[in-house]
């Protein structure tokens, strides 16, 4: 999250109005819902997890045990079970 000085981007009237509620503190203004990306979309993290989970499902279908997958991917057996038994493709 980057810091931007309100004096540089907001009109003075708006700053005065905001100062009625908060002064001299950092204020987080979230993105509009329509502009918000899902977690990992921009960094590629979501795609990597989806690819990993697809590989885990495929290996399970081809006979690799849950215990073997947990060791190979450094995940708990419960996490592997959630991945292989979910209905996502």
Task: Tell me what you see in this structure.
- The protein has one domain.
- Helix 3 (45-61) crosses helix 5 and helix 4 (66-73) crosses helix 5 (77-85).
- With 89 residues, the protein is an all-alpha fold.
- 52% of the residues lie in helices and 0% in strands.
- The protein has helices at residues 6-9, 12-19, 45-61, 66-73, 77-85.
- It has five helices and no strands.
- The two termini are 33 Å apart.
- The chain is rod-shaped.
Secondary-structure element order, N to C: HHHHH
Shape: rod-shaped
The secondary-structure class comes to mainly alpha
Radius of gyration: 23 Å
How many separate domains? 1
State the helicity in percent bands: 40-55%
Mean pLDDT: 89
The major β-sheet equals: none
Please report the number of helical segments.
5
Number of strands: 0
Note the beta-strand portion. under 5%
Low-pLDDT parts are none
Alpha carbon gap, first and last residue: 33 Å
Write the layout of secondary structure elements.
Elements: H1 6-9, H2 12-19, H3 45-61, H4 66-73, H5 77-85
Helix pairs in contact: 3-5, 4-5
Characteristic key phrases:
89 residues, mainly alpha, 52% helix
Please summarize what this structure is.
With 89 residues, the chain is an all-alpha fold. It has helices at residues 6-9, 12-19, 45-61, 66-73, 77-85.
């Amino acid at each position: 999250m980057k810091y931007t000085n309100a004096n540089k981007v907001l009109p003075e009237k708006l700053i005065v109005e905001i100062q009625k509620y908060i002064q001299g503190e950092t204020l987080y203004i979230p993105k509009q819902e329509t502009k918000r990306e899902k977690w990992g979309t921009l960094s590629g993290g979501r795609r990597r997890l989806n690819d990993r989970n697809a590989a885990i499902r495929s290996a399970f279908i081809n006979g690799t045990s849950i215990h073997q997958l947990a060791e190979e991917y450094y995940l708990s057996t419960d996490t592997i079970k959630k991945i292989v038994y979910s209905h996502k493709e």
